[in-house]
Amino acid sequence: MDTSNIRIGTCQIFYEDDVAVEQDLGVTIGGVDVDVATSTRQTKVDQFGETVVEEVITGRSISVKVPMAETTLDMLTAIMPGATLVTDGIDPTMKKVEVKTAVGESMLAMARKLRLHPISKAAGDFSEDLYIPLAATPGGMQFAYKTDQERVFNAEFVGYPDANGLLFVYGDINATA
To answer: What span, in angstroms and rounded, lies between the C-alpha atoms of 68 and 155?
Structure first.
């Protein structure tokens, strides 16, 4: 047993903007959850009854739940499909986010790189980063205005495979074969 292999701690979340520049999505409250699921199809034959004789992977998915604590207009625009940040033409301190229904928009077309980086690692140490080359969030939100609770944007990102079937990478993406 090597206790140095036991990992705890939080992460920074980076999401590419429209011009492929990583944007830090800020601090979180409640922890970031990653869910990788694999679906399979079991094969049974009459001669062996209910005994499974083969099992084949039929799909895999990844999702990341991010409880964003920094509830700024820029952050809202970054995670909400159909959202546009509008800055007043006369007073640039006046801003708003306009959100359209986005009905019929392709989630895959909106997907961009999502990267989780453990805060225990130096900025240039990518050894434990989680990369999802194509991730998007449908923009479902629930937050409260309460005197005893922080306002949190709960964003759930879904990963999509790229043209080569790559769903995600864990570790240093710069490593080559």
So the answer is: 7
Helix (H) and strand (E) counts in the chain: 2, 10
pTM for the model = 0.88
Q: How many residues does the chain have?
A: 177
How many other C-beta atoms are found inside a 10 Å radius of the C-beta of residue 130?
Answer: 22
Maximum distance among all Cα pairs of the chain, rounded to whole angstroms: 79
Residue 65 to residue 157: CA distance in whole angstroms:
6
pLDDT in tens, 58-89: 999 999 999 999 878 988 888 888 889 999 99
Question: For residue range 120-141, what is the model confidence (pLDDT) as tens digits?
Answer: 999 999 999 999 999 999 887 7
Which residues, in sequence order, are CB contacts of 76 under 8 Å at separation 6+?
Answer: 83, 97, 153
Q: Which residue has the tokens 């019929």?
A: 104
* Amino acid, single-letter form, for residue 2: D
